[in-house]
Specification:
By secondary structure, the protein is mostly helical. The chain contains 10 helices and no strands. The longest helix is centred in the last third of the chain and has 15 residues, at about 115-130.
Length: about 170
């Protein structure tokens, strides 16, 4: 009952109460992987990155082939600015679930933050090929700009705007 109520509190935006209920659920069943994952998600939203990492590590210990805790741990490391650890976690998440394209987007972001531009471009290319995600064009454009390829950057920014009509107002800045 606590786990389900935690989900409801999450949907309602009551993060602290969701954490309380996920914790109560874990007291009843310390092997409840999804409760660690969901509580960890709440910790990220509330800025408790180390607690999120701890919950992800616990979920990984309980179910090592489940990609979501690796991915969430990577996001927590990225929020902390530890992009090397984030990258390692994203690589592990992809090893568990290579078909989840959005993990590649976060992996590309970590590569970009570490100034591993060619690896970032490769991952953004893959995300764009698989999803045509507007944000991937924007982020790839930032990498192109960082390496001095302004024409390619501009094309990516224009493509992002073309795919997302809400961004039309920014067209004059491209």
């Amino acid at each position: 009952p606590y786990y389900c109520r935690g989900i409801l509190y999450d949907v309602l935006g009551n993060r602290e109460q969701a954490i309380v209920d996920y914790t109560a659920s874990l007291q009843l069943d310390p092997s409840y992987v999804e409760a660690y994952v969901n509580r960890g998600k709440e910790y990220l939203v509330t800025g408790h990155f180390d607690k999120r990492i701890a919950d992800c590590n616990q979920a990984i210990a309980l179910r090592p082939n489940f990609s979501y805790p690796y991915w969430n741990r990577g996001r927590a490391y990225a929020q902390k600015g530890d992009y090397s650890q984030a990258l390692a976690s994203f690589v592990q998440a992809i090893a568990s679930q290579p078909q989840d394209v959005y993990i590649y987007l976060d992996k590309a972001d970590a590569h970009a933050a570490l100034q591993l531009h060619q690896q970032a471009l490769k991952d953004y290319d893959y995300v764009i090929q698989e999803t045509n995600e507007p944000m991937a064009y924007y982020k790839r454009g930032r990498v192109y700009r960082a390496i001095g390829k302004k024409v390619q950057a501009r094309k990516d920014y224009e493509q992002e705007i073309a795919l997302d009509p809400e961004l039309k107002q920014f067209e004059k800045y491209v």
